[in-house]
Amino acid sequence: MADKAYSSRRCYELATELQAIAFILFKKNATGKSFGSSTWSKMYSYFMLHREEFMKHYHQRSNIESTFSMIKKKFGPYVRSRDITAQKNEVLLKILCHNICVVNQEMHELGIQADFKTHE
């Protein structure tokens, strides 16, 4: 899922190469002309004929954007590590901490008593 800025035949072809299905919103001036991109014409047809179903897939992006926003607000928008491996680990740690915070919040809001002991 991506916004209109990524609406290009190349992006659709790249998704196909990666064995994925791209749900990228089409710009107003987009047409079904493929110019060599069969994926573009297929997805444009799907968009035009099954717009409601297409938009259900596309709007999952809202959940992703909300999650990124929550992580940035709570833990800051920057990655401070210099090494690429350390940067990846820092981002993964922020995601883990976010998930722990969400579980903790839901436990308190819903009155759930969690038992994190190992059961044999």
Explain this structure to me?
The protein has 120 residues and is an all-alpha fold. The chain folds into 2 domains: 55 residues, no CATH class; 41 residues. The protein contains 5 helices and no strands. Helix 1 crosses helix 2. It is elongated and about 55 Å long. The protein starts with 8 loop residues before the first helix and ends in a 10-residue tail after the last helix. The mean pLDDT is 89.
Indicate the topology.
Layout: H1 9-17, H2 38-49, H3 51-58, H4 60-75, H5 84-110
GO molecular function: DNA binding; transposase activity
Protein name: Putative transposase, IS4 family protein
Domain Transposase IS4-like: 2-100
Which tags fit this structure?
120 residues; 2 domains; 5 helices; mainly alpha
User: Any low-confidence stretches, pLDDT <50, length ≥5?
Assistant: none
Rg on CA atoms, Å: 20 Å
Indicate the mean pLDDT: 89
Give the count of structural domains: 2
User: What is the percentage of strand-forming residues?
Assistant: under 5%
Described by strand count, sense and barrel closure, the largest sheet is:
none
Residues in helix, %: 55-70%
